[in-house]
């Protein structure tokens, strides 16, 4: 039975720093079990301190609704989540969600607007391979399958052909995200109703197999107009799948990994900006080893190369640079240094959110490597966000002998 609006107790948690919430011991334990924050008791009975938050959104536990407010403005957050490199501009068409004050509603509204844009000319169609058994020849006779299934029998015939249909991966992903939205308890009825109406467009599209992660189809000229909707769909599916895997009741939890959204956005901007200039940009490289025995694995977020030679390496850090003394955390510098040594490059980069305005260099005397800390401003809206991200693209590929970056030993 659903709770009435008057019975729900709303509490807020900040993404950054620590917050105090009023919960029963059972509710505090269930919040801790979601594993996106630390929940610690205080000296006051029923009061709990929440720290180390790494996701944002909404959690419903019994009669308590906990809103985890992002430090990043919703407009910038939704733009990063939907960014595919094919938007003509950061126009307002994708920001119809601005009347929504919480992340689930904002993400859902933005997604529905992106789906409307993508399907304005009808659903995407494409060719998919079909294996069929029949008595009338259509397409190609699959001899190998025929001999395996019914050796020596001429009929029925095992056939293989390409069908031009709406039942393609792009539509399956969008349909799955629409269905996921309709199960989220926190969404306003107007959003649920709109998602239900939109879902009817996909009646002839088959269901997507449930999975913790979604691999988007390769971008092409044919599906370019679907890209913003697909990227938002992926985040919705990742969010709901993650919550379910943590044991939350279906629809009760909607928590987005903003650090992953930021990492994906920065990587995508670098690919779109640098590939036309002849650079290769690889994301989440997983086959690097620090030691000669190959036992110590390292996984840089971004590797930029040209002509098969690594030019530089970068790592995204979804935290404000300079919160304490203005220098990057030592652990971040050590990590960057490991990338520099492994790749054999003289300069590596740490990409923070906001913080110091100008980039700063830190030269490591023992290796001659240089770690450069940058800040991408997420708080000035999508227009300034894109300017800042493109400036980073240029900084990662220009000469290391840039006199504007004063070294800090």
TrEMBL record:
<dbReference type="Pfam" id="PF10117">
    <property type="entry name" value="McrBC"/>
</dbReference>
<protein>
    <submittedName>
        <fullName>McrBC 5-methylcytosine restriction system component</fullName>
    </submittedName>
</protein>
<dbReference type="InterPro" id="IPR019292">
    <property type="entry name" value="McrC"/>
</dbReference>
